[in-house]
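Page 42, continued from yesterday. The earlier attempt failed because a stray header line got pasted into the input along with the sequence. Redoing it now with the clean sequence only.
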Amino acid sequence: MRVEGNEKKAFVAACACLAIGGLGFRLVMSQLNVYLQKEPVPLRTPIDELPSMLGDWKQVGKDQQFPDAIIEELGTKNFLDRAYVYKNDSAKGLFQVHIAYYTGMIDTVPHIPERCWGAAGLVMFGEPELRSPKLDLSHFDLKNGPLQPSSGLRYSQATVKDLVTRKDVTVNLPLGDMKMTASIFQDPKNPGLTFIGGYFFIANGALTPSALAVRNLSFKLADRYAYYCKVQFSYRVREQPEIAITMFDQHASDLLQLLLPQLMRSLPDWPALESQSLTPAVSSS
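This time it went through. C-alpha cells are written below.
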C-alpha cells in the first residue's frame, strides 16, 4: 500500500499535535496543582499493633486471620479484625472491631453490613440511621492543632503513649463530626438476638459515615495522595432492638474515645501530607 507524501505529512502532524497536547495538559495540571494519579501513602505503624488494652476494654482471643480468597475480596492486606470485651464481662459489652486501610487509587467498593450481612442470612430491622457517638472533647486539644489551608479549619489533637518508648506522642485527629451509620439486624433462626453493625470512614484526614462520600473525600483533585480507612463495630446482644441500639451507642462512645487517637497514630499524618501536596511533584520523566 502506497502512502502519498501529503498523507504522510498529515499523519506526522497529527502525532505531533497529540504529543504536544499531552505534554501541555500535564504541564497545566502541574501548574494548577491537580493530581489525577494519586500516590499511595503507607501506614506509620501496622494497624494490628493497636493496643490490646483500651481503658476498660480488653482484647479477647486472637486477631482474626482471613484466608487468601477473603483477603482478595476485602481488597487490602492492611486490616485488623479483633474482639474487645468491656470490663472482662461479655454480657456488658463485646465489640468485634474491624479496621481496613486502602491507599493509592481509590476504586475499592467498601464492604458494609447493609450489603454483606443480608447475604449471610440476617434480616435488617428498619433502615440504616446515623448515630452520634459522644466523645469527651476535654481530652483533646481543640485549639493548637495545624490549620488546613483549603478550609481554614484547625485539626484537633490528642496525646497517646508510644508502645515502644512509652513517651507521649501528639497525633492529629480527623476533621468533621463523629457520626456512624448503624444498621440493626435480626436472625430469623434466633429472634432473641439483635445484631448491630456501625461504621464510619477516615479519608484523607476527614471523617464521613457514608460509603458513597468516602470516594469524594479521598479523590480531591488538589490532593497528591489518597487513602481511606474503614472502622466498623459489630455488636450482638440478647435484647430487643430499641434497647440494643442504646447500649451500642454507649459502648461505641466509650471505645471510640480511646481507639480513635491510637488509630490516628497508625494512619498517615494528613496535615504533613497536605503541606507536601502544596509543593508540585517533580516528574522523573
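Notes: Residues 1-32 form one domain.
Reminder to self: strip header lines before submitting.
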